[in-house]
Design brief:
34% of the residues lie in helices and 16% in strands. It is α+β, with helices and mostly antiparallel strands and 158 residues long. Strands 1-2-6-3 form a 4-stranded mixed β-sheet. Strands 4-5 form a two-stranded antiparallel ribbon.
Length: 158
């Protein structure tokens, strides 16, 4: 992988780790700064889980369109049931309360153990982390964990 591409992805991870007032003083990804991760360049068709990492970030070919990238990630999620694959298409413009979450330049596939991800989401659900999220985006991101994680999105009425 070219150093410029690696550095871009590395810097994006650093941005995801920054505490943001717009997010109730949480980071976009509160665990990013402490996770054991690796950034690898790989052909999309060769992406597989790799043991020993909290997160594997695959930089895949940038010529894939969003539909194809997401379809491949859906296939990986069906094939490798103990892992969660998440696509980040280079043209995605996803945000939480105005704060960008996508890298905006490269096609990426993130892979992490599903059990660890679900546990992290459960811990975050016990805080105010999810209160700044749009309900539809939250459901899209959490997918099957949306039912598992008890989330207080709207303020309780006394």
């Amino acid at each position: 992988m070219k150093e410029k591409k690696y550095n871009y992805i590395f810097n994006w991870i650093q941005e995801l780790s920054k505490i943001r007032p717009e997010l109730g003083n949480f980071a976009v990804c509160p665990y990013a700064s402490t996770s054991k991760y690796i950034i690898l360049e790989e052909e999309l068709r060769k992406v597989v889980p790799r043991w020993g990492w909290d997160v594997v970030i695959y930089a895949v070919e940038d010529y894939h369109d969003e539909d194809f990238l997401y379809a491949m990630v859906d296939d990986y999620n069906r094939t490798y049931k103990k892992y969660k694959f998440i696509a980040d298409h280079r043209k995605s413009n996803t945000k939480i309360n105005g704060v960008p979450t996508s890298n905006g330049k490269h096609n990426l596939v993130l892979c992490q153990p599903k059990k660890d991800l679900t546990e992290a989401r459960k811990k975050l659900a016990k805080t105010d982390y999810y209160t700044c999220w749009d309900k539809h985006y939250l459901k899209e991101v959490l997918e099957e964990d949306h039912k598992i994680v008890e989330i207080k999105i709207e303020p309780e009425i006394p």
